[in-house]
Amino acid sequence: MHTSSKSAVVYENSLAFAQQQDALDPLKKYREQFYFPQMHGRDVIYFTGNSLGLQPKKTQDYILNELEDWATFGVEGERLARNPWLSYHEQFSESLSKIVGAKAVEVTVMNSLSVNLHLLLVSFYRPDKNRTKILCESNAFSSDRFVIESQLHVHGFKTADAIIEVAPRQGEHCIREEDLLEAIEKNKDSLALVLIGAVNHYTGQAFNIKNLTAAAHQAGAVIGLDLAHAAGNIKLQLHDWQVDFAGWCTYKYLNSGPGGISGIFIHERHLNNPQIPRFGGWLGVSKESRFKLNREFVPATTAEGWQLGTVPVLLLAAHKAALDLFDETGMEALVAKAEKLTGYLEFIIQEVNKTQDQQLEIITPSDKEKRGSQLSLIPHKMGKEFYNRLMHAGVITTWLEPGVMRCAPVPLYNSFEDIYRFGELIRELAVS
Ligand SMILES: *Cc1c(COP(=O)(O)O)cnc(C)c1O
Questions:
Q1: Fold for domain 2-33+330-431?
Q2: 147 Cβ below 6 A of ligand 1
Q3: What number does CATH give the domain 63-328?
Q4: Distance of CA 343 to CAs 117, 223, 238, Å?
Q5: Ligand 1 atom 15 nearest Cα
Q6: How much distance in Å is there from the Cα of 15 to the middle of ligand 1?
Q7: Of 31, 249, 274, 429, which has the fewest beta carbons less than 10 angstroms from its beta carbon?
Q8: Where along the chain do the CATH 3.40.640.10 domains lie?
Q9: What is the per-residue pLDDT across 267-311, written as a single tens digit (0 to 9) for each?
Q10: Which DSSP letter does residue 413 get?
């Protein structure tokens, strides 16, 4: 028995306890709405929804509907399809605004995440004589680093002169927020932009975005977020926090399929500002002027003003199947279950550590305000072999070099029993 000081859930390491928690779970019916890969004649333990979310069973029908409407209407499907293609993406503004805490006008979907980060930096990284620098995490995902570096080069800067990377302290894995705030303050005369992952992909650490945004603005800089590991995972209030812009992919916690469409957020105060430059395309103009073929680009005054071209309808159909589930559950219920599930996983790992010499170090913060549905572990004794053996045993996690195994129990489809069974498997591995 163990009482978690924060959530007051009393966890037990028993199948009966896990099954009882599942029976009490208000979201339990959603598990059946997803396809689970099969191994050894049963569902795998899927702890990798932070990398590629599972397929909702409805997705195939949603895509098939579009294929049928294409067969039936040809180009007329732009207006006559059940989800008229020309305005298909408009349906997402409401759902996404709830997921990221925005106004509907501030969000839209387009392209992929890395492409969108570039497009957003075209608009929001505007160095001048004094302000040239971009501040980021030292352990950001490679794509973010490449985006930043290539944008610096486009503006004629050398990476070493213009990038500020805040690292964890010696011997630590997570970045201390006070170090981020101090770096922002210290560079306040030369800082143009803070670009940060709201949840770090490697450690699962969630940053206090409200504080970081206030600090960036205090320093006279712009702040943008990569929400790849945050959208659909943690509670976000982008509008109220005054974040300038953000982008996310939808194939991780948002279950919208491999290579799914990406989402963007641009704060309302920037939507109608003609001073902000951007790369334009025909879809970015107001709806009334789209087919007038004007020579002058006058962008729409919503996030759609950043759209470039024709929407990828088949990806949008997959996105809709996934977001319909988020509309039903709401983020609050998901976050509440995520805290319990992740807390249970933490408890089970600690139980195994007590009885075995397995040395599974959890590097994700233990404070539930500082994490979402992910624990990153270092299996000190077995290293990658630990991950490999779990894969063979039917547990899908992700391994990241140099030595972290990420486990993401996702509230829409993971169960307490998944976590209990995971605990049994790691106990067996430890003695074999
Ligand atoms: C997953 C992820 C990406 C992926 O970008 P794509 O363009 O969708 O491939 C980018 N940044 C971070 C932090 C990620 O976790």
A1: Aspartate Aminotransferase, domain 1 (3.90.1150)
A2: no
A3: 3.40.640.10
A4: 33, 31, 26
A5: 228
A6: 36
A7: 274
A8: 63-328
A9: 999 999 988 999 999 999 988 887 787 788 899 999 999 999 999
A10: T
